Structures are given as structure tokens and as C-alpha cells.
Amino acid sequence: MRNEDRDTNFCGFPIHVMLIIILGSHDTSGDMASSNKVLVLEEKLCEAARDGNVQEIIRLLGQVADIDAAAKLDVWVPMTPLMWASLNGHMECVMVLLDIGAQVNMQNEVSAVKD
């Protein structure tokens, strides 16, 4: 392993992503675990991906329970953060989401339709 690889990767993730996840880990006070707050955070993650806001995605990573949670936002079909970022051409967001383990094979009602 090259020295620069050791400095920039930790368990296969870029070090800046791992630091954000570790430093922003879940609050254990009980309020954070409420389903409404989790749904709001997952929706905010989808909004950040839709809008191409990499810093907000990284900030939310330590708070969101499910990186692949789908939100409808401004369309009729729910989409995951990776779907939102891909649809809107936000490649940096796509790369961050993939780096932290977003599933590439998730489907919604539209992507599951067969020709």
C-alpha cells in the first residue's frame, strides 16, 4: 500500500468521510431515535443529494439511519439519495454516497417496471 493511500483511505472509505461519520455519530439520548426525526433527516439527505450539496450530505451521514431511505420530495415516486444525485448529474454527491455504501441496485416503482 502506498503512503498516500494510507493517508486518504480508512476501511475503503476516504478519510474525510469516515471522520464525519465518526464525529457526527448518532445521539443516544432517545429523542434522536424517534421515527419522525429520522424521517426528516432522511428526507434532508435526499434533498441534499437532489440539490448537489456535498457538505450537507457529509454532515447528515452520521445522523441518518438508512443511507438508502427513499423520499418523494417533489415527484410522485420515492427515490434514494443516490437516485436523486444521479438524476440531477451531481457526480461528487454520487461518489460520496457510493464511498459510504449506498446500494446501486435499489429500485422504485419506475425502475422496477419491465419493458
Keywords, separated by commas or semicolons:
115 residues, two-stranded antiparallel sheet
Can you walk me through this structure?
20% of the residues are buried. The protein has six helices and two strands; from the N terminus they run αββααααα. Helix 3 (35-51) packs parallel to helix 5. With 115 residues, the protein is mostly helical. Strand 1 and strand 2 form a beta hairpin. Strands 1-2 form a two-stranded antiparallel ribbon.
A few lines on this structure:
Helix content is about 50%, strand content about 5%. It has helices at about 5-10, 15-25, 35-50, 55-60, 80-85, 90-100, and strands spanning about 10, 15. Strands 1-2 form a two-stranded antiparallel ribbon.
Note the topology.
Layout: H1 3-8, E1 9-10, E2 13-14, H2 15-23, H3 35-51, H4 54-61, H5 81-87, H6 91-99
Antiparallel strand pairs: 1-2
Helix pairs in contact: 3-4, 3-5, 5-6
Number of strands: 2
| Uncertain segments | 1-6, 22-29
Order of helices and strands: HEEHHHHH
Strand order in the sheet with the most strands? 1-2
> Which shape, going by the Cα principal axes?
globular
| Residue fraction in strands | under 5%
Mean pLDDT: 74
Task: State the major sheet.
Answer: 2 strands, antiparallel
Q: How far is the N terminus from the C terminus?
A: 46 Å
Share in helix: 40-55%
The count of helical stretches stands at 6
Structural class, judged by helices and strands? mainly alpha
What is Rg?
Answer: 15 Å
